[in-house]
Records
---
Amino acid sequence: MMKAVLSVEHISAGYKDEFMLQDISFELERSVFTGIIGPNASGKTTLFKSIVGDLDLQSGRILIDAQDVSELSLKEKAQKLAIVSQYFETPELTVEAYVLLGRYPYNNRFQFFESEKDYEIAHKYMHLTDVYQYKDKLLTELSGGAQQMVAITRALTQEPEILLLDEPTSHLDIKHQVQVLDLLRKLNKELKLSVLMILHDLNLAGEYCDQLLMMNQGAIHKSGSAKEVLNYKDIETVYDTLVVTQENPLSKKPAVFLVSAVVKESI
Amino acid sequence: MTKKHHIWFWYVFLIFILLGATILLALSIGEVNFSMTQLWTLFNEPEGIEYSIITNIRLPRILLGFGVGGALSISGLVLQAVYRNPLVEPYTLGISGGAALGVAMTIVFGINQIFPFMSLAVSGVIGAGLVIVFMYMISMRRSHLNINSILLTGVMISFITSSAIMFLLATTTSEKLQDIIFWTMGSLEEPNRYLIYTVVSVSVIGLLIFYALVPQLNAMRLGESQAKHLGINTTLLVKTLFVVASVITGISVATAGVIGFVGLVVPHFMRFLVGNDYRVLLISTFLGGGIFLILSDVLARTIISPNELPIGVITGIIGGTVFLVAMSKSKKLLKF
Amino acid sequence: MKIVQLKFTILLVSFLLVLSSCSSNKVDQSEEGIRIVSLVPSFTKDIVRLGMKDHIVGATSYCEISKENKDLIVGSVIDVNEEKIMLLKPDVVLASGLVNEKSIKILEQNGINVNYIENNRSFKGLCEQFIQIGKVIGKEAYAKQLVQQARHSIDSLKALLPQREEKLKVFFQLGANPIAVVIPNTFMDDYITFAGCTNIFSDLDKIIVNRESVLLRNPDCIIISSMGIVGKQEKEIWTSYKDLSAVKNNKIFIVESASMPTVSDFVENFAYIINRIYEDKE
């Protein structure tokens, strides 16, 4: 039996005057591409923050590779978890320097200069994600989509067990959405990288994610494969809107069609 | 280390040369001017009034300028790193004000008569430290640092401390009044050699401690949350930075008085010259601060000779003007 | 960036090399004998009064003697140019509590003989100060003689004072906005007490008061230290309070007592003051 890469056991977490997550549990298998979906205020971000460590757990524990996260040092944790946020600061760094910062968790305390190995690893991933061409450009000179790719590249140099992303594509146009998600899927398949991602767009979730966690009102409403989770009944319950689900004719993955008022009337 | 990093060593080397030239300049200019050859002769014949002037009057000032300039500059630098805001420095955060108030109170309550040796320096550090603790507590109320409330609080603290000092001035005896006024105007004049050595040592130690934290400082450029995700204990880092900054600022203000702008202008300038990487920026800022303050002192001593301007006047006017000019010419100056 | 740095360094270094002209100050060997630097304006006055004006080689920018000869200036009272003083090779430097302690220490560290004389503000203090200065510059006997003369003059003036049952109440104003008053242990207070009057603020130890307290204490006579236009304005303001005793007596006048007097100045001022206090216009 394979160890689960991420194991969330009965955690409760949240903000004092806002709602809290109560008793959430789930497991993620290795090398699986998992998405977290749900309407606003369903607890997606709270759950994400709890796993990532931005929010303290009130109870329960989180295991990564069967190790309790709270027993890991910050650096060890950074070697296991890599995070890509939705919005991030863009300092005046070259792409190469920015990506190299991902090697920080592996550097010695007083190591001032990156080692050759660090450079090798960074360049390897930069080739993989095709940002090597921007190596000496400043991060601020790149488009939003390219910046996102660079951020992902940096996360990769951390060589984590699991890559966590918070709505990495919500602010991008479709070309870049596809670009980023294609890359993630490639990483998932080729590097066997476990991916956990918050997604807003149900179609993207259906197209790219193997497994889905659907959140609602601070709890997991349904979990399972994308096909299982993306059915019109559950979506209607959680999102409170009419939809029709079908298969994408090209990829055979689940697709969600929204039902507008005009259509409703004609039915 | 790549070839790109080799240029850093050149930058630092050049700055050292500049520092050397500045020191020579400061030694040679004053009520009486010396040429290079004259300086050389004097060093070989250590006697006479002129030798005394150089070693007992000018050299101590240069040393203190180096220590204080360095300390205030790197304090400003790390505070700017923490808050990622260009307006931040010991003065604008009220830290200098706290040190000033500590010293003023020590003078007024006569404590410096009881413990003459280090009481002013200690009270400066305590004053600065209290402000920093206060700033830290209100910064950490939320899980991240809220820059606007910090800056506003810093300005308020500056107001409060200067009002408090004015209150003390209004109610104290005239001798103590003189003491406080001399000292708030800022001056590199200091007869106590041991105090000067202490300030320089403490500044250098502060520099070394910051250097130990340089990789973390670089990672902080990504923002606090991302730095945490990379494995940095940002809470501990910020606390350490604050403590060290308050000590070196406190002791500098206690010895040389309130000298504003150094911690604001020098870091920006050095960023412009050597870039944003803290590995080269830290030492460059330290040396640059020394150069800036020593040069300002030369001006302060000579502009209305034989009278002397308070050094804070020079740093304020020149520092401020230069900064405004540079800011209008290059947008790069404010980026992190 | 490298070029900017290089240019700047070259500029600076060449500037230094250009500084090849030595311009050490010509040390003025004016008169044979003691070379004096005075860092306190009132001390400078005393030294001049003792006939040693030509021996003064350095003074503050506030000393009267500096107005005649700018080269004498070695600093303001607040900050002193130690280098200049050292170059003057003085035999003695006179300082008081008003001078920056740090400057004094630096001078002493460099082997300069600094004579610290307490700044005592009463007439008695002025006398002692005068004699001490005399001692330091080698004119002790003369100083003592002048002090004796002054004391005699004052005693004779006192003897001329009319006897009064009730002493006149005097208010001596030093400043406006805020109002600063004369308090005990100052020579100005001595003007009042020697003149056989009482200072309405003899109970204070701080000099700032508000206008009300003056009116409440209802002085019989108001002396205003000359403050230029402000002094005249203050006189008008007081005159507007018709019920004030001093207004009824028509005894509000201005005196020239801007700076610390020498012992002889004190006597002159004293004479003038008792004249004005006791002249009867009724």
Note: Chain C touches chain B through 46 residues (CB under 8 Å).
---
Amino acid sequence: MNHQYALRCSGLTKRFNGKAAVDNLDLEVPAGQVFGLLGPNGSGKTTTIRMVLGIYARDGGEVETLGSADPLGVRDRLGYLPEDRGLYPKMKVAEQLTFLGAIRGLSQREAKQRADAWLERLGLGDRAKSDTNELSKGMQQKIQFAASVLHDPELLVLDEPFTGLDPINTRLLKDLIIEQRDKGTTVVLSTHRMDQVEQMCESICLIHEGHAVLAGALSEIKASYGESSVSIEYEGEAGSLQGLAGVREVRDSGRTASLLLENTAASQDVLRQLVDRVRVRSFKLAEPSIEDIFLDKVGYVAPVDGNHGDAGNNGAVAP
Amino acid sequence: MNPAKVIAIARREYIARVRSKGFIITTLMVPGMMALYAVIVPMMTRADIDELRITVIDAGTGIGGALKTRLEGIESLPIEMQETENVRESEVEVVRQRFSDAVRSEEIDGYIVLTPDQQTLARSQYYARETGNILITETLESAVETTILENWFAGEELERLRAVQRAGMETITVSASGEERGGFLVAYISTTILGMLLYITVLMHGQQMAMAIVEEKNSRLVELIIGAVTATEYMVGKVVGVLGTGLTQLSIWLAMVAITILGILPGLAMGAAVAEFDLANVLDARTLAYFSIFFFLGYIMYTAMFAAIGATCDNVQELQQAMIPAIMPVVMAFMSTFYIMTNPNSFASQVLSFFPYFTPLTMFARVNVAEPPLWEVWLGIILLIATAGFTVWVAAKVFRATILFHGKRPSLAELFRMARAAS
């Protein structure tokens, strides 16, 4: 694989009943990275994934998956963890894994060996002969992950992989994903959890209402947003952060807040104003978080709240 | 199509089907039911006539006593004989009134009147409330005849007479390919049994497979599968898996029959119901060869229909309704075999056997009962092959177009459009 991109698409479009779920979307996933496909629920992430994997026919646009214009032609080199998890409830765990490996092109024997090895790795060796529905949700999710990588895919697509996992299993899954990347697998991580993206992804694409609103290397995106944000810890009256000069927007969490600065504003001026109003416990110039960038990009506006007064917005609420 | 993937899908489906409770239950139940049908049912029909109370009125033939003794000795019918009434011929009508009243008031079930006859020694009449049971009337008639004959013959001649009566008559069907012992009854039974095997296995496993497909859609497993194999591989795998299930079940049943023939389980013998019934006759090579052809083709055709229907449905309730078009041809074909068996070469039978969605059962019935011209049989088989192929092809298209479809079930017109788009 000498392609620079594991996955590319341009003008990708899918309509359901005439309404575009994915609208003219461009996507470039560099090979060998963990790539974050970000977006709120219903933004078109899953539909995009289904199209690039060849599960859905697209209504428009071009796809190049692992260098092939037909994703189905390279299906044995793709791994997929769907958002709606599904396993055969009455099937034995080891048989299930073997089956899912075999339909990705492994021989029955090879699939069986790898299934057993993975079960051992995940600490589920003793459950190999259990019916799948006897396993806890977390265990089933680990099985499902194993199924998606059993055949050593070159491109691994994980749709909301952390949903419903406890912290220990979340940690384990992160390690497993990074391990895949270290082996050279390109990982597409679809999620609405911004914190995970910050931790794991090198590049992202932010989808909103079927459009890509932001794409590129995470570091570049953050740099372009510059020092335009300040995070503080404070004690003071509710609403006392409103109306600061040079502050574009306030995300007030009560005890902490992040202040998005206007491009020309100097952080020192803001600090000076703050000291007059509240007791500042900490003041930190911050890179904007992905969450801030995301909310900024999709035009999120905080709901009107009597205690906080009007911060100059018109009270519209994003979905 | 990647054969390894088809096998992987088929293998999973096969294991799931064979391990299901339904499979185990039917595998055991069907032979059990047939044994019941063969052994218990005749016993029950015999037991139905509990104690037939009969009086013989002898108007001077002199054989009344002998007839009474003979009737008492019949094992297949439990008869309780009243004292024989010896009357003069002129009194018969008067006495008869009295006995008819007794029949009406259910003191007795019937009576036989013997009146002297120059030629035949005696003429007999049977008066009873129920005269429809052929088993009873035939038994009584033959008892009267035998009594008369035995009255005439004695010694060695009597022995010879009895031997003749035991010999009975054998039925042999003459056909173009040869002669077949057993005749209609054997063909009737083998057609019913084998037809029922196809009927039960295809309906049961086809429906279960359709249900499994709906479950795969609901659990979104289908996304994983369709991401990994083509819709056609998926469907063909399913059909092959279900075919394997049917063949496994059939082999188990045939093995049971073989064991029965070998006499290891003589008590289970299906033929016990019918005198002179030989299982080896029922399952001759020709019947089995045709059965294999029709079972194989019919099974694939019907199963493909179930698979396509399963793909179009989103929940089990919806599926129940939607499966009717696949169930109907199987049921109707099976029902029409009963007509065909009695009229194998009528025009209606010909039409029924050439309609491909009926052919697996209807043509098999014709072939088994009569011997229709070979060209007719093979025309039916060729039409069936073409239709089965066409059905699989259409089913694969519908399957591909609808397998990921969620929401309202597509109308027939929409299905056609989707199928065209998918090609």
Note: Chain B touches chain A through 24 residues (CB under 8 Å).
